[in-house]
């Protein structure tokens, strides 16, 4: 009898255990099935997916655009969803990717076609596509950048620019005014920069940049980068700083442009594919595939030396820089010929010293953009103080000379009066 009771207990226990296992298996199978259904629906409905991005403010979302965080590993089960993030939402043209509150307008293909005179007013060509000059219906002159057909990389860069410049606004960043996703075309509408790129101004023999212009351009660029690194929330790394991506407006104010490769700063150990322009890329980034703010600093250092020497990085600029670094006044020997005798050599040396720090082999030992901006501003401020002092001294000298002349006239008058009295 005892044995039968034990057998009953064992059977009941095994039955309960099997029941629990079957229930768990059923529960997880149901969850997996529901998740699979959601993924399939997401793939079939491009408009249902969005590209979330953090915006400035205390209530900022913690989600980040997939195109801005490609360095983060995504599991194989999410590949379908990631693909939808990259391309699906642009095919759903009835849904704007940018909030109306951002101030960025959405244009139709016909509006852009009319403004560019049927895409005949070409300004230039780039890796992204063709850039046109356009006059909008309001009379405003703008630049339109059209994505080259079948450009997957350009598609990602297009998304990045719209998302980033939709929330980044600074006087030293080129302003994105609008975009167009219509008739299979992708276009970006920017403010028109009438003086073109810094690269064209430096390497065009017909152009002439004074030392004052170059120093102010360095100040403007530093302010633009400082906003990206220290003012934007979250911080943004440009990743493709070069003289061709620095544009100048009608008043020669420099602005940072082309944010197609930019990304939000992400604190992780993942590596990203090498992207950028040869000659401006940080050697530490090339060796480690890790891009940081200090990589932007390196690129800015190269641009500063371009301002001083007008030697392009593809023309062995680094060799000239290394030779100049051997002497205190070594930079004097590689100053652009147009500046010889027309610039303050002490200012040039101080700016070159800042640029040398930007190019330090160890990224950690490079200065922050805030320190660089402050250093360049001090160069300008010292000159202004010196000019004010000289102006004050010159003014005092003029007043003293005027007083002496007045006194001489007065003495002459007195002498004449006394001579007349003696004659009487």
TrEMBL record:
Q: Where are the transmembrane segments?
A: 7-33
PROSITE patterns tied to this protein: PROKAR_LIPOPROTEIN (PS51257), PROTEIN_KINASE_ATP (PS00107), PROTEIN_KINASE_DOM (PS50011), PROTEIN_KINASE_ST (PS00108)
Gene3D superfamilies attached here? Phosphorylase Kinase, domain 1 (3.30.200.20), Transferase(Phosphotransferase) domain 1 (1.10.510.10)
Could you name the domain of life of the organism this protein comes from?
Eukaryota
Annotated binding of ATP, by residue: 145
SUPFAM superfamilies, sorted: Protein kinase-like (PK-like)
Q: Which Pfam families match?
A: PK_Tyr_Ser-Thr
Q: Does the keyword Transferase apply?
A: yes
In terms of InterPro entries, this protein maps to: Kinase-like_dom_sf, Prot_kinase_dom, Protein_kinase_ATP_BS, Ser-Thr/Tyr_kinase_cat_dom, Ser/Thr_kinase_AS
Residue intervals of the Protein kinase domain? 117-379
- Mind listing the UniProt keywords for this protein, alphabetically? ATP-binding, Kinase, Membrane, Nucleotide-binding, Receptor, Serine/threonine-protein kinase, Transferase, Transmembrane, Transmembrane helix
Q: Which GO terms describe its molecular function?
A: ATP binding; protein serine/threonine kinase activity
Family listed: Belongs to the protein kinase superfamily.
- Name of the protein in its database record: Calcium/calmodulin-regulated receptor-like kinase 2
């Amino acid at each position: 009898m005892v044995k039968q009771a034990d057998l009953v207990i064992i059977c009941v226990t095994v039955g309960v255990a099997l029941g629990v296992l079957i229930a768990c298996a059923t529960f997880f199978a149901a969850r997996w099935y529901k998740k699979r259904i959601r993924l399939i629906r997401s793939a079939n409905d491009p408009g249902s997916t969005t590209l979330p991005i953090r915006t400035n403010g205390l209530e900022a979302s913690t989600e980040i655009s997939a195109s801005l965080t490609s360095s983060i590993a995504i599991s194989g089960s999410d590949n379908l969803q990631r693909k939808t993030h990259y391309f699906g939402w642009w095919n759903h043209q009835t849904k704007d990717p940018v909030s109306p509150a951002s101030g960025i307008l959405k244009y139709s293909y016909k509006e852009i076609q009319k403004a560019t005179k049927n895409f005949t007013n070409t300004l230039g060509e780039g890796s992204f596509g063709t850039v046109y000059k356009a006059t909008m219906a309001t009379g405003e002159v703008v630049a339109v950048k059209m994505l080259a057909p079948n450009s997957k990389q350009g598609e990602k860069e297009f998304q990045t620019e719209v998302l980033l410049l939709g929330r980044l606004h600074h006087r030293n960043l080129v302003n994105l005014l609008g975009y167009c996703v219509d008739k299979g075309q992708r276009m970006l509408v920017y403010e028109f920069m009438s003086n073109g790129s810094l690269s064209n101004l430096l390497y065009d023999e017909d152009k002439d940049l004074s030392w004052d212009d170059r120093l102010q351009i360095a100040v403007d660029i530093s302010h633009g980068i400082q906003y990206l690194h220290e003012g934007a929330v979250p911080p943004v790394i440009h990743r493709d700083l070069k003289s061709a991506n620095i544009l100048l407006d009608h008043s020669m104010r420099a602005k940072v442009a082309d944010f197609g490769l930019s990304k939000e700063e992400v604190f992780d150990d993942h590596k990203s594919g090498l992207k950028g322009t040869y000659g401006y890329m940080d050697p530490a980034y090339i060796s480690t595939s890790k891009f940081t703010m200090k990589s932007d600093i390196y690129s800015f250092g190269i641009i500063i030396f371009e301002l001083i020497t007008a030697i392009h990085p593809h023309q062995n600029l680094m060799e000239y820089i290394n030779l100049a670094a051997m002497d205190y006044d070594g930079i004097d020997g590689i100053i652009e010929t147009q500046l010889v005798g027309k610039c303050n050599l002490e200012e040039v040396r101080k700016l070159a010293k800042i640029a040398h720090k930007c190019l330090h082999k160890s990224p950690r030992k490079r200065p922050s953009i805030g320190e660089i901006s402050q250093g360049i501003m001090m160069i300008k401020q010292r000159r202004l103080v010196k000019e004010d002092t000289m102006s004050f001294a010159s003014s005092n000298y003029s007043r003293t000379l005027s007083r002496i002349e007045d006194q001489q006239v007065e003495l002459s008058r007195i002498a004449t009066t006394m001579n007349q009295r003696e004659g009487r």
